[in-house]
Amino acid sequence: MKKRDLTQAEFDRLLTWLDADRERAAESYEVIRHGLIELFESRCCGDAEDLADNTINTVARKVEQIAPTYSGKPAHYFYGVAKNVLHEYFRDRTVPLDDLTPATPVTSETEDRERVFQCLDQCLDQLLAEDRDLIVTYYQANKRKKIDMRQHLGTNLGLTSNALRVRAHRVRKNLEACILRCLEHEANRNKLN
């Protein structure tokens, strides 16, 4: 079932929620959309742009209810919704067991990748909000946008570019260690079953 397009009022409310200044709101919108597309592409979703737009539309329809009580950066809400969209995407693409034939090899590569992403999500949830914001923002864009984003992040946090790199490196190392522990725990649990 195809969802309806946004109304102008819904879109305007979304932009207002992102920033009171219309131009900065539009920039935030583009950064969020680009980040969502990259997120879905990194999960090997063929229709990443449609999934990103679906995520944005879902958030835009809820802005009127969530904006008054939501605290934190709006981008984090988008990524929370994106996780649900991603789960829905993979659930809808599940192949029934009856359709699997010997000619259709079942590889564990997709399962392994999904396991890593689940551990990443769990570990991101365990980080302090400040560290989660930093690491998500730090790795959000590519090329020139990445440089601009990191300069802006450093300015907002009152950090030099070198101090920002060191801090991001520390958070990333902690995140990697958490993911490895999570994967090891999953492997041990699977051995017991």
Please describe what this structure looks like.
With 193 residues, the protein is mainly alpha-helical. It folds into two domains: 1-96; 108-193, Arc Repressor Mutant, subunit A (Orthogonal Bundle), CATH 1.10.10. The chain has helices at 8-18, 22-42, 48-66, 74-92, 109-126, 129-138, 143-157, 161-192. Helix 2 (22-42) packs parallel to helix 4 (74-92). The termini are far apart. Mean pLDDT is 82; it is low at 95-107.
Short description:
The protein is mostly helical and 193 residues long.
Low-confidence stretches: 95-107
Distance between the termini: 38 Å
- Name the shape in a single word: globular
Number of domains as seen in the coordinates? 2
Structural class: mainly alpha
- The helix/strand order is HHHHHHHH
Secondary structure tally, helices? 8
Radius of gyration: 19 Å
Helical residue percent?
over 70%
- Provide the residue-averaged pLDDT: 82
Strand count, sense and barrel status of the largest sheet are: none
**DSSP strand tally:** 0
Content of β-strand: under 5%
